[in-house]
Amino acid sequence: MEEQNGGSPPDIAGAGAVGARVQAANTGGHTHGRAPTGQLDSFIYLDHAATSPLHPEVLAAMQPYLTHAHGNASSLHRFGREARRAVEQAREQLAAWMGCDPSELVFTSGGTEADHSALCGLWLAAGRRGHIVTTMVEHHAVLHTCDFLERLGAQVTRVAPGKDGVVRAKDVLAAIRPDTVVVSVMWVNNELGSVEPVLDIAAAVRANHPHVRVHTDAVQGLAALRLNLHEAGVDAAAFSAHKVGGPKGVGALYIRRGTPWWPVLHGGSQERGRRAGTENVAGIVGFGAAIERLRRDWDRHEAHLLRVRDRFWAEISRIPGVRRNSPADAVPGILNVAFAGVRNDRLLMRLDLMGVAASAGSACTAGSLEPSHVLSACGQTPDEVREAVRFSFSDATAEDEVVEAAARVRAAVTTLRERTGA
Ligand SMILES: Cc1ncc(COP(=O)(O)O)c(C=O)c1O
């Protein structure tokens, strides 16, 4: 089996043929990112920051590992060796794109686990007492892990952002104390698309506080920015596959070589003893394939997102009483807006009926429309926060779709305002 290396699907019991059939089934007229199965053909999906549809190429790459190539990557026989080869190939694909060594990446069950393991592992390795600096705009994967560590004895400072959702590097640096052990600042905010000054913070921490470790939640950054982890100088970073056309339930944790860090999941010695549990081989292969596609299409991808976002904004900015919450220099995949007098829960339900899927910022709170902690931290009033809606795009989003979506948004806003007299 070893000779079969080189990126082609493994040929265990005819898996190659299956791969080819899947490829064929998925290339002809596939509307990935448009209508969820069995729903309105004209349904428009603008919630890619919550999750992006599995790309057909990714599905084709995964298929053999969901069927014939079913080995456990720890097994010594040929099925196991093939699974191991596929996992290591994916690790190399990720590392090449992210600018790190493959050995510095640990596969996880997603972004949440990667954030959790980074923060807990860094804090535990630093002596279980230290102070943590983070921001008020982090994803709950970071904020709730910090709450948990507080219960274990950590002290945590949560730095407030400006009105634009961006924390100032000087405020983060000013929060560092002699007992600070970890600084955690996200790369790109999931609700606003704002880019946080992680690079400046990492450089300053390295220069002035070399004992402090810097973690970044790069889950949304992956779809939006070219990153080079070694150049960025961070000690840890969290990634997730399902934001870039990969499968849900797989992610990666970057831990820079030599960083004091304790594993938090114990059991088998998978991932070189850094994360116990049988590897999700198909998911990991899918993550690798999603990254390959991102790498290949990067220039086109960036330009496309900008075009689609700007076109959508040009259309909806003509709706009276619209506000743009996302800063002008936010990444192009995320646009957060608000319509004066229109509650987001009503608007989102109306849009769903009209065939547009969007969200109110963080979709990760189990479908509940909790008021956004990010916009509250930006100083918005509870009423303003309740008007915020996030539209997010991917390269599967077509320009004609966003024009049509904008028309539906206008109609929905008008109807709701008529009903409520707003
Ligand atoms: C910024 C950010 N961090 C972490 C996560 C959690 O990632 P996962 O869904 O893979 O657990 C998300 C998911 O929305 C996110 O947007």
- Give the % helix: 40-55%
What is the fourth-level CATH superfamily of the domain at 78-291?
Answer: Type I PLP-dependent aspartate aminotransferase-like (Major domain)
At CATH level 3, the topology of the domain at 78-291 is Aspartate Aminotransferase, domain 2
Query: Between the first and last Cα atoms, what is the distance in angstroms?
Result: 68 Å
Q: Approximately how much beta-strand content do the residues carry?
A: 5-15%
Unreliable stretches (pLDDT < 50, length at least 5) are 1-40
Tell me the number of helical segments per DSSP (H or I, 4 or more residues long): 15
Proper CATH architecture of the domain at 78-291: 3-Layer(aba) Sandwich
Strand order, largest beta sheet = 2-8-7-6-5-3-4
Label the structural class. Answer: alpha/beta
CATH C-level class of the domain at 78-291:
Alpha Beta
Global mean pLDDT:
90
Oligomer: single chain
Bound molecules: pyridoxal-5'-phosphate
- What sort of overall outline do the alpha carbons produce when their principal axes are compared? globular
Number of E strands = 12
The biggest beta sheet reads: 7 strands, mixed
